[in-house]
Amino acid sequence: MSEADLSPITLDPQEAATAQEAGSGQLAFLIPLLMMNFILSGAMATALDSTAGEKERGTLESLLVSPVARSEVVAGKLLATTITALAAAAASVLGLLGTGLIAGLVLVSGGMDAEISQAFGGQLTLGGGSVLGLALSALGAALLISAVLIALSIYARSYKEAQTYVTPLSLLIVVPALFLQFSDGFDTAFYGVPLFGSMLSVMDAVTGTLQWPQLWLSLGANLLLTAVLGAVALRSFGREEVIFRN
Q: pTM of the prediction?
C-alpha cells in the first residue's frame, strides 16, 4: 500500500461567512438588543409624560377641547415619542461604537494582537444599503414601541401607574433577543413577527447579509401593528371613562 492510502479522505475547511459577517463578532448580537432597549428608554419618558403625565397635571382636558382633531393629537404624540426614541437610540449606539473603537485602538496600541482584541467585540463595516436598512428597521421599531407606550400609558391614572404598565416591556425585548444567537435556523416567516423581525433585520445589516424582501416584511409587520395600536389609543382618547380615570 502506498502512503496516500493511509489518508483516503482529506478535509479542506472553507469559510462560509463573509468578511463583514465574520468581523462583526459579538456586535451582531449586541447591537439589535441594545438598540431596541435604547429606543424603549428614549420613548418611555416622552410617552408617559404626554399621556399619563398630562392627565395627572390636568392639562389633557384643555388639550382635547381645543379645535384639533383627536387623530391629530394622537399622531402628534406618536410622532414626538418616535423622534425622541430615535434620537436616544442614535446617540446611544454611536456612543457605544465610539467607545468600542477607542478601546480597540488602545488594546492594539498596547501590544494586544488584533485577533485577540477582535474577540472582545468586533468590527463594524457598513455599506450604504446596510445603513439604510438599519435606519428603516430602527424607524419601524420606534413607531411600534411608541404606539405600545401611548396605548398603555393613556389608560393609567397617574405617571407612576403608567410606569408599572410599561416596565415589563423590557422583557419583550430581552427575551426574544436571546434567540438571535440561533438565527441561522430561522426562515423568512420569522421576519413577520413584530419587533423581533426588526431585530433580525438589524443583525442582518450589521453582518452584511441583509435581504430587502425580509426587511420589507419586518417593516410591514411593525407598521401594521402600529396602526392597530394607534387605533386603540385614538379610541381611548375619545372615551371619557379613560380620560377622566384619575
A: 0.81
Residue 227 CB contacts under 8 Å (≥ 6 apart), including other chains: none
Rounded to whole angstroms, what are the CA distances from 142 to 10, 111, 167, 234, 236?
Answer: 51, 41, 16, 18, 21
Which element (helix H / strand E) includes 35?
helix 27-48
Q: Please measure the distance between the N-terminal and C-terminal CA atoms of the chain and give it in whole angstroms.
A: 91
With beta carbons less than 8 A apart as the criterion, state whether 149 and 170 touch. Answer: no
Dihedral of the alpha carbons of 119, 125, 129, 132, in degrees to the nearest 10: 80
One digit per residue, the tens of pLDDT, for the chain of length 246 reads 777 777 778 788 876 666 556 555 666 778 888 888 899 999 998 999 999 888 888 888 888 888 888 899 999 999 999 999 999 888 877 776 677 667 667 766 666 555 544 554 555 666 778 888 888 999 999 999 999 999 999 988 888 999 998 888 888 888 888 888 777 767 888 899 999 999 988 888 888 788 899 999 999 999 999 999 999 999 988 888 888 876
| Helix/strand number for the chain, H first, E second | 12, 0
